[in-house]
Amino acid sequence: MALHRFSVGQQVRMTGWSRQSTGPAETFRVVATLPERNNLLQYRIRSDNERHERVTTEDNLENADTASFWKSAR
Fold first, then answer.
1. Alpha carbons 20 and 51: distance in angstroms, whole number
2. Which long-range contacts (CB under 8 A, 24 or more apart) does 40-45 make?
3. Distance between CA 56 and CA 71 in Å, rounded?
4. Residue 28 Cα distances to 1, 4, 19, 38, 39, angstroms
5. Distance of alpha carbon 50 from alpha carbon 74, whole angstroms
6. What is the pLDDT of residues 6-33, one digit of tens each?
7. 14-47 burial by CB neighbour count: b if 16+ within 10 A, else e?
8. What pLDDT is recorded for position 65?
9. Cα–Cα distance, 64 to 56 (Å, whole number)
C-alpha cells in the first residue's frame, strides 16, 4: 500500500493547470486523502475561491511552498 505524499490541511498547487498561464497558480487545500485508482493516489482538494471540491491524482499536485520557492528562484 502506497503512502500519500500530501496530508489533510496541506496547501498544494495543481501542475499543468490551464489557468496557471493567465496568472499566479491557485492554491488548494487538501481536504481528504482517497484510495488509489489505476495505481495513482487520489486527493480531494478545495480552493477558498471556489464553492466546490475537486478530485485529482497525486501526479497532478505539488507542494505550494516548494512551487513558490522555485518560481521566485528564476
1. 19
2. 41/2, 41/4, 41/5, 43/4, 43/6, 43/12, 45/12, 45/14
3. 23
4. 25, 16, 13, 23, 23
5. 29
6. 999 999 999 876 554 555 668 999 999 9
7. beeeeeeeeeebebbbbeebeeeeeeebbbbbee
8. 84
9. 15
